[in-house]
Write a structure and sequence with these properties.
By secondary structure, the protein is mainly alpha-helical. It has six helices and no strands. The termini are far apart.
Length: about 160
């Protein structure tokens, strides 16, 4: 199976698994550890393998791309830490948050999402300059799909705000 078909098949399986696991969770009380585990899941480890396969970089492109990717992951990790903090805030305040606290939570959540988008745009430009527009676009496409999978899994597990 070619890399694109394997990638698509993996995405479909992850979506199905995330949806199947998340549906019953809406009725459950949240736990901090569960969400932190989701945020720091094996998906992060698998990203390098997925990127290696889907980008199919030659030696020169790889030499240019991977140092940039490591910087990207470091910055993304800082945004992820903010996200973990938000999830902890949500879980510890679940069912007890005031309207103002919920509004603050929502604004902080939007800020994390905006910062993640800005980061992707910044690194699209860097990767494009170091490799090509095609490689940069493919990198961002894979990052976007993997990010959506993680978002789907987390959002499926989080109960609705009370």
């Amino acid at each position: 199976m070619n890399p694109q078909k394997r990638f698509r098949a993996g995405v479909v399986l992850c979506v199905i698994a995330a949806a199947a696991l998340g549906i019953p969770a809406l009725a459950q009380e949240p736990t901090v550890d569960k969400y932190v585990e989701l945020l720091r899941s094996d998906l992060r480890t698998d990203k390098v393998a997925i990127l290696t396969e889907t980008l199919a970089l030659d030696d020169a492109q790889g030499a240019a791309f991977w140092p940039i990717y490591r910087e990207y992951e470091n910055e993304l990790s800082a945004i992820g830490d903010r996200r973990v903090s938000l999830v902890k805030r949500f879980v510890t305040g679940y069912g007890k948050m005031s309207s103002e606290e919920i509004g603050s939570f929502a604004r902080d959540w939007f800020a994390v999402q905006q910062d993640k988008l800005k980061l992707r745009e910044k690194y699209f430009k860097r990767v494009a300059k170091a490799t090509s527009n095609v490689t940069a676009a493919r990198f961002i496409q894979v990052e976007n799909v993997l990010g959506m999978l993680l978002d789907l899994q987390i959002n499926a597990e989080m109960p609705l705000i009370k």
